[in-house]
Design a protein that fits this description.
By secondary structure, the chain is mostly helical. It has 18 helices and no strands. It starts with a helix and ends in a 14-residue tail after the last helix.
Amino acid sequence: MQLSQGRRTLQVLLQKEFSLFMATRFILIFSLFLQNTVVSYKLYSLTKDPLSLGLVGLFEVIPAFGCAFFAGYVVDRKEKRTMYLLCIVGYVLNSILLLYVTSAHFTNRYSISAMEYMIYAAMFISGFIRAFLAPSSFSLLPLLIKKEDIPFAITWSSTSWMLGAVLGPLAGGILLAHAGISLSISVALVLLCLSSFFILAIKRKPVHYSKDIGILKGLAQGFRFVFRNQIILAVLSLDLFAVLFGGAEALLPVVSTEILKVGEVGFGWLRSAHGIGSIFLLLVLTYLPLKNHVGKKLLVCVALYGVCILLFGISTSFIFSFLLLFFAGLFDGVSVVIRHSILQMKTPEELKGRVSSINMMFISSSNELGAFESGFTAKYLGTVPAIVFGGIMTLAVVVATYFKAPALKNLHSMEDETVDKKL
């Protein structure tokens, strides 16, 4: 008897090693978002400069983008569980650095500028670690479940990430308001250490790398795979520019303090709104999966994301702003599910690390570049014009993609053979 969609999804979660991976992923993301939330808020409270929030993103994206060229190659040649564990250890050490930089001992001895530069240094280290974490996670997931269960695993993986992205900022705002930044970072540090015990409970996995052809040829293989697939390239490009111009959430410390005037707790709720919307979408997709007209649904949802960002820029109501960010997260969740499903289903095991790194260069790095673009624009045009400009440009990107990538708008399902057509 064939199991229902919801029951199959639940059975995937109950598999031991996959559930351990989900626990690790949730705790890791929760800790990092908690930490980044309190650090960014503290930084803006010291500098009162929106550009500093953009620089946080810039300093993280430089190593993440630069190292992605060889991080995927290294991950493909190494055991994935071990690589994931090493990334967690790196985050633990970086959290210790942030704990010291934001401590009373440091602030009493050094200037505000010294703290600012040290925070940028910690973000640089975080970007370097992330260059290896993304391909490690992407490559490890399919080794824990059967191939036919990958779509269900992606739903859970995305949900655990979003839960961490929602609860982390919310907890960060509450902890920052009632316990201060040092205790907030200490909580993140303890949780990062806890995540390492879960990943250690997963057995080491075989390495699917048949022949060492050298780093340059290895990188070329990954790029050829991506750039010779119309749908993959179109989806990555759409997300790249949409996130680049729609990175208004980097300005939330400014919006929450100067426009909405809601304080730390309100800031935590606003920072979590996007993730709450995405979680809601993922729960809906558990029972109503995307089956037909996938390409057109993707374009419509990215366009609606742009509309939400545009309206958020002119909103002066906390409730309305929260709802706009909620729906922005909901529409963004569609793009996440489609992109991850196509990449996992269509990428050979021996290329997963490199293709994931290219995906990170397109998508993850665009988050930080988007934060820099928003911070830079806000400094010279103002916060509201910067956010409105980002929403308008996102809509322009959708229109350009509609006309320049007809294969995407004609994509019927994620298993369509058009995914494999060469350019």
